[in-house]
From TrEMBL:
Gene Ontology MF, one: DNA photolyase activity
Keyword Transferase applies: no
Highest rank taxon of the organism: Bacteria
Gene Ontology CC entries for this record: endospore-forming forespore
Family annotation (Pfam families): SPL
Keyword entries, A-Z: Lyase
Protein name (record): Spore photoproduct lyase
Length: 364
């Protein structure tokens, strides 16, 4: 047992077993849809074949019941056409593409709350081959990382975890494994990127990835992880998984998010950085990055999260925050500038000291 498992140990995350899996008729027409159905059924889970593409039976009698039903449902569907036109995803990557939307975990700050509408059903995409085949036209056309001299050597970057957590679903879909192999066989300056709070990396070890996939582990200090990240893997297990992939030659990364100035945050985040240093110790040719994201919320995400987690102790007090306008005028609440400056200065110095080979990709 490591220090990270104490003092508030919790059991290792178990692989998600959805209570209900449905498949829409268009999904059967895609080889990957049929692969997912076979994979799910091989795990003893029945797949309900819907008569139409409309998913019913998710709404319960209360918001709580709807949330519980949706969170335990997986739908095998074809991606909406809008998802096939890729969008830049600053500051992470040149382009984002989606292999699924939704996640079975229960993080009380989940950023999906402000991004997705309707009950939080997990939808996995059957048209994977078409989605991967459509990426080639975006190569060399990066608008985010490719334009920044500091990140140009990453090539054209494609982010595949904007609306989901890949390792929460991989055992039911096989989708991200195929994506890694796709990029491994794509002999061009391109990079697949995804981030996860899970540790189920066994099926990725030994793939022909050619270092064209960067897997980042979303990590936080123990008080945040234990209090707010229900249903995810333990921090120690995520770091062990990071080591496993780094030893297998993958570029790896940390998504330290959401950073919060909790009580005694310097000590808690210091322990996190030390645990990461121990996890990567002795890894040959280590390629490690860090992405630093502070906590923020919008009026919409706060309302949804308080509906999902009414007793949360997550701080979302508008009067303790600075109001900012994002893209298209949307309002978001971030920490005030002096708090941001203090956090940023501490993280930049802390990473330079404890993880000297680690490149910070951005702070936000
Ligand atoms: S693991 Fe990520 S996507 Fe899943 S509930 Fe937590 S924050 Fe949301």
């Amino acid at each position: 047992m490591t220090d990270l498992d104490q003092p508030l140990a919790r059991p290792a995350a178990r692989r998600w077993v959805p209570r209900r899996v449905v498949a829409t008729p268009p999904a059967y027409d895609h080889p990957h849809g049929r692969r997912i159905m076979a994979l799910v059924e091989a795990q003893g889970i029945e797949v309900e074949r819907l008569r139409s593409a409309r998913l019913t039976g998710v709404r319960g009698e209360s918001d709580r019941e709807t949330y519980a039903r949706a969170k335990s449902t997986m739908a095998i569907v074809v991606s909406p056409p809008s998802r096939r036109r890729l969008q830049p995803i600053a500051p992470s990557a040149d382009w984002r593409f989606d292999l699924a939307e939704g996640c079975p975990a229960h993080c009380q700050y989940c950023y999906l709350a402000g991004s997705l509408s309707g009950p939080p059903v997990t939808r996995v995409y059957a048209d994977l081959d078409e989605i991967l085949g459509g990426l080639a036209e975006y190569a060399g056309r990066g608008t985010v990382t490719s334009r920044r001299p500091a990140r140009r050597e990453e090539g054209t970057t494609f982010e595949a975890s904007c609306y989901t957590d890949p390792l929460a679903l991989e055992h039911l879909t096989g989708s991200w494994r195929r994506a890694v192999e796709h990029f491994g066989g794509w002999d061009a300056p391109v990079q697949l990127r995804w981030t996860t709070k899970f540790d189920d990396v066994g099926t990725f070890v030994g793939l022909t990835h050619h270092r064209r996939t960067r897997v980042r582990f979303s990590v936080n200090c123990l008080p945040v992880t234990i209090r707010f990240e229900g249903g995810t893997s333990r921090l120690a297990d995520r770091l062990a998984a990071l080591r496993r992939l780094a030893l297998d030659g993958y570029p790896v990364g940390l998504t330290i998010a959401p950073i919060m100035p909790v009580d005694d945050w310097r000590t808690s985040y210091g322990a996190l950085l030390e645990a990461v240093a121990a996890a990567v110790h002795g890894v040959p040719d280590l390629d490690l990055t860090a992405e630093l994201i502070t906590h923020r919320f919008t009026p919409g995400s706060k309302e949804v999260l308080l509906g999902w987690y009414p007793r949360t102790r997550l701080e979302m007090a508008e009067d303790a925050r600075t109001r900012k306008h994002g893209k298209f005028g949307a309002v978001k609440y971030v920490y005030p500038a002096p708090v941001m400056a203090e956090l940023r200065g501490w993280f930049e110095a802390g990473i330079a000291e404890r993880l000297p080979g680690c490149r910070i990709l951005y702070w936000t």
